[in-house]
Amino acid sequence: MSIKQRMLLLALLAVAIVLGLTAPEQQPELREAVPTRVMVDRVMRHDLVPSELVSGRLEPARKVALHFELSGQVDTRAVEPGQAVAAGALLLALAAGDFADALTEAEARLTQETRNIARDRELLKLARENHALQKNDLVRLETLGAESLVSKSHLDEVRIQLIQLESELAQLNASTGSADTRLALQQAARNRAARNLERTRLTAPFAGTVNRVTVQAGDYVTPAQLVVELVDASALDLYVEVRGEVAQSLQQGQAVEVDVDGQRLAGTVFALQLDPDPVTFTHALRVRLAADGARPGQVAEVSLPLRNLQQVLAVPATAVLYEEGQTFVYRVNSDTLQRVEVVLGHRVGEWQEIRRGLQADDRIVIRDVAALSDAQRVSVDAEPVAAN
Questions:
Q1: Same domain membership, residue 321 and residue 290
Q2: Residue 340: which residues within 8 A CB-CB, separation 6 or more?
C-alpha cells in the first residue's frame, strides 16, 4: 500500500471517530414497571386451641439418698450399682458389737429395775402391817403406863421403833410411787439401744435399683454421709418450669402427651407449684409417665394445652414480617401495599393470633412478604377461601 492510500485510510478513521463522539445520545425507551403479583386473603375470626411445648430430662419417679444415723465402721457391703433390690433388702451394715452390748446392758438394767420395784412393793406391804402392829402395841403400852404397870423407858423405846417404822414406810412409799417413772426410763433406754442396733443395718425403703454405693467394707462413716443412692425407675417424672399463663390452664391429674425420641407417651400432671419462683416467676411442674419405652436421662417434650381462644383475629403465620424486633403485615388497599405494625398473640399451628393492628375483613398478603415494601403497587391473585 502506498503512502497516499495509508493517509486516506487514516483520514477516514479520524472522521469516523469524530462522528462517533459527536453523535446525539439516544434516549432510552421508558416502560412502565410490571406490578408484583401477591397472594391475598381476608382477615377472619377463628376458634384456636393453643398449646405450649416445653422440654426437660426424665428422672426416676422415686429417688432417695441413704445414710446411716450412727457413726461406725462398715462391716458388710451387700449390693453393687445396677443391682435390683426388694423393699427391706440389706444394703450395708456397720460393725454391731458395741451396739449389741449396749442393748444387753439396757435389757439387764430394765430387768433389775423391774425386780427392785417388785421387791419394794412387797416390803411396803410388810412395812404397813408391821407399822399397824407397832402402833397398836404403843397404844396398849401407853394405857398400861397410865396405870404405872409399864416403865417409862420401855414406852420410849417402843415409840422410837414406831418412828423408825414410819420412816421406812415413807421411803418405801416414795420408792414405789416413782416405780412407773423409773421403769419408763429403763424401757426408753432399752428401746433406744434396740433402735441403734437396728440402725447398724441399712435396708432398702422401697423396691428399686441401686444407683450408687459410695463406701467400701472397712470405711468409717458418720451420720448424714451419703452411702447409697436408690432409684425406682418403674415410673418417670419430667420436671419443667412453666409460665403463669400455662400453670393457670393446668390441673393436677390432667392428661398430657409426652414425646420421647419421637415416641408419644401418655403422661399426667402429677405436681404443680402454686406460688411461682420469686426470681424467675415460673411454676415448677412435674409430669409423671410410665417407663414403657423410656428411661431416665432422656430428653422429653410435653405439649401443654392453654386456655381456648374464642373468635380471635388470626392470619397465616407466613403473612407476618419480623424486622428489628417489630412485627408487620402488608394490608392491600386497592392495588397498593400498606405496611401495618401488629401485636401478636399465640401461634397455633399455621395460624397466628393478631391482638392489635388489623380489623376483620382486612385484605392482607399471606406469603412471600420479605421481598415487599410499603406503598408498593401489586397485582392480586385470586383470593383463596379462608379456613374457619
A1: no
A2: 328, 329, 330, 331, 357, 358
